[in-house]
Write a structure and sequence with these properties.
The complex is a heterodimer of chains A (about 120) and B (about 170). Chain A is mainly beta and about 120 residues long. Chain A contains one helix and ten strands; from the N terminus they run βαβββββββββ. Chain A starts with 12 loop residues before the first strand and ends with a strand. Classes of the chains: A mainly beta (about 120), B alpha+beta (about 170). The interface between A and B is medium-sized, with 17 and 13 residues.
């Protein structure tokens, strides 16, 4: 999630936030990756039934180009369009300087979202 | 005074008895976890591993699996039912890519949906160094099914949970 969050930095997860409202586009969320201890910080870019696509590093949702001011490093990703399944959200990290195959991103069950970072 | 002494000895005997029962007759949960400990031990590889140790470990890995085991690892393009021998061969070839390897399991959640079947959800962390000198550190959530066959818990299914689907 660099440069928004420093690699190896410490943060707290605010779990109550998702009890009151569903994560929206651009929200940074904590995704439970494995067990109860391994978490990922990712940004929500699309919600269920929306179509996600990357063209030359630019994000397109339902065919519309989305501005992403938080992406600071050059990115050349290409990903054919795919639709977000029911009860899923699509998350991507802010650091897209690496090849697309080396980045953990994609759609995840809403049940895996456990909160948002406190700061 | 004598009475207190007898009570203390009695309590001590009971404690030792309980400890012996727990040690020599572990519950099913512990027996299941023991299989993961064996897997961890036999997958692990040190830089100076002797060829005989390597062969022994690969052979041992096979003994932890049912005759046919379902493997699902979409990100590794590994999917399907594999015979015990195939798993040993696969483990051997996978280990050969590494000069040093360590596999640890955490966060066990074990349920017994019926007699002789254990469903285990856990976190696996694989660390090491490839023969090309590349550092490896991968963590994944696994869903495993073990079946009790001839009083031994054997892996009959291992699935890597796909948390993020592209």
């Amino acid at each position: 999630m660099e440069p928004t969050y420093r690699n190896g930095g410490v943060n707290f997860c605010w779990r109550l936030k998702i009890f009151f409202s569903e994560p929206k586009r651009y929200d940074v969320v904590t995704v439970r990756f494995a067990g109860s201890k391994v978490m990922l910080l990712k940004r929500v870019v699309a919600r269920e039934s929306e179509q996600v696509e990357f063209r030359n590093g630019k994000l397109f949702i339902d065919g519309q180009k989305i501005e992403e001011p938080y992406v600071r490093y050059p990115c050349n990703w290409n990903l054919p369009p795919r639709r977000v399944e029911k009860d899923y959200i699509y998350v991507v990290g802010d650091n897209r300087s690496m090849p697309i195959d080396n980045h953990y991103f994609g759609q995840t069950s809403k049940k895996r979202i456990i909160g948002v970072p406190l700061w | 005074m004598v009475k207190t002494k007898y009570i203390l000895v009695g309590v001590l005997v009971v404690i030792i008895g309980i400890a012996v029962v727990f040690y020599f007759f572990p519950n099913e949960e512990k027996k299941v976890m023991k299989q993961f400990n064996f897997l961890s031990e036999w997958v692990a590889k040190s830089q100076d591993e002797a060829p005989f140790t390597m062969l022994q470990k690969i052979k041992n890995i096979g003994t932890l699996f049912d005759e046919h085991c379902e493997l699902k690892a979409p990100s590794q393009s590994l999917s399907g039912s594999y015979a015990r021998q195939e798993i040993s061969t696969y483990a051997g070839s996978a280990r050969s890519y590494f000069s040093q390897l360590d596999l640890k399991f955490y966060d066990f959640h074990i349920v017994f949906p019926e007699k002789g079947i254990a469903n285990v959800t856990l976190t696996a962390r694989l660390t090491g160094r490839s023969t090309a000198g590349e550092q490896v550190d991968e963590t994944r959530e696994l869903e495993c099914v073990l079946k009790k066959i001839e009083n031994k818990w054997l892996f009959s299914s291992i699935e890597i949970v796909e948390v993020l689907k592209r």
